[in-house]
Amino acid sequence: MEDRKIRTGRKLNKFFIALGALILLPTFILLIVKLEMEEVLKVENVDLHAVSDIINFNDSLIVPIVYENIEVLDSLEGDSLRHKFIEVLLPSVLIAKYRIEEKRKRLIQIRKKVKWHKRDSSYYLLLKEDYKAGDLDDLIYKMQTHPNSIVLAQAAIESGWGRSRFCKEANNLFGVWSFNKNEPRIRASSQRGDKAIYLKKYETLSHSIEDYFKILARANAYKSFRTSRVESTDPFEMVNHLIYYSEKRWGYVRLLKIIMRKSDLTQYDAFKIDPQYFVKRVTIN
User: Fold this and answer.
1) Which of 204, 212, 88 is nearest to 150 (CA)?
2) Which single residue of 75, 114, 164, 224 could bond 160 by disulfide (Cβ 3.0 to 4.6 Å)?
3) Does residue 170 contact residue 199 with C-beta atoms inside 8 Å?
4) Is residue 279 within 8 Å of 42, Cβ to Cβ?
5) Helix (H, G, I), strand (E, B), or coil: what is residue 77?
6) Distance (Å) of CA 35 to CA 106, 190, 281
7) Are 278 and 35 in contact (CB under 8 A)?
8) Among residues 57, 61, 54, which one has the least CA distance to residue 88?
């Protein structure tokens, strides 16, 4: 009888120990696993079939849409073309800027850490190479963006308000050349001497804009432009430092200013993505 009581007591002890472990397990998991809330942007892709498919701007809060098949703009002229081009392009500009800024924010958080995780180092080194930065501070500095008005004006010039072949067939808004035969690209009808010219082909207009920001961040020709983005808030002052973007030099800068004024592009510098299209999700780190 005594042995049976001892065995029963041992079984009860094991039961309560196991029960306690189950109760405490979530606490131990929370000590090991860090839960974080991540902001995600809901982006919609719209295949245009008619000009009427383009969403009008009712205020400064923009629906994050990436439009495809912008050939519909070919039916427009003058102010109608310019207005619809802006309505098509500005959402993609804001999406591109958001994606770059999210990467930049993460780098700023990494900079604050005393000890880096392996994934932090990999993330930093990948972007450092991509932006041809000297160190972390230089990378964060180079990843700053600039006013929407400048992006819209340059895209208007380089793409002929969205009607160039490169824009329609390759989503290439800025006439960016390709020197890598292994990347998606299309051949230009003209040549430079006896050599063929190729232009990059992008997945979307927004990807073209991201690459444009990267080009301005890396090239030595735009070093003073990058400085101007920090020292000035005036887009008309900033474009003075884009003289090397075109062989026209100051003629190009003057044209940028004319387009910015004529189309009142600076009004769009205050436009933002509508907050309702940002959602929160839990991530485990």
Assistant:
1) 212
2) 164
3) yes
4) yes
5) coil
6) 16, 55, 10
7) no
8) 54
**What is the structure's pLDDT at 189?**
79
How confident is the model over 104-139, as pLDDT tens digits? 999 999 999 989 999 999 999 999 999 999 999 999
Provide the pLDDT for residue 78. Answer: 94
Q: Concatenated DSSP letters for 20-74?
A: HHHHHHHHHHHHHSPEEEEEEE--EEEE-SSGGGSPPP-SSEE--EEEE-GGGGG
DSSP result, 180-225: -TTS-EEEEEEEETTEEEEEE--SSHHHHHHHHHHHHHH-GGGHHH
Which residue, chain included where needed, has tokens 């999210």?
102
User: What are the structure tokens assigned to 113, written together?
Assistant: 């850490």
Mean pLDDT of the chain: 88
Domain regions of the chain by residue span: 1-33, 34-284
Looking at residue 88, the DSSP 8-state letter turns out to be H
Phi, psi dihedrals of residue 21, rounded to the nearest 5°? -65, -40
Q: Tell me the β-bridge partners of 192.
A: 195
pLDDT value of position 193: 72
Amino acid at 94: L
CATH number of the 34-284 domain: 1.10.530.10
